[in-house]
Write a structure and sequence with these properties.
about 60 residues, mainly alpha
Length: about 60
Amino acid sequence: MRMISAIRAGFGTSSELIGGLWRGPYWWLVPVAALLLPAAILFIFLQAVPLVAPFVYTVF
């Protein structure tokens, strides 16, 4: 149950970020945030795979 609430909190935070950017003067950052957030989530999940993890670290 804690994991589900943590995931919901993460999605809430990201939706607040995109909503705040959209309403404010930085509306042009919404596409950037929309591309970076899924990429970050993908990198986090890829680090769990032992064969892929060394290649993810070389990206940074």
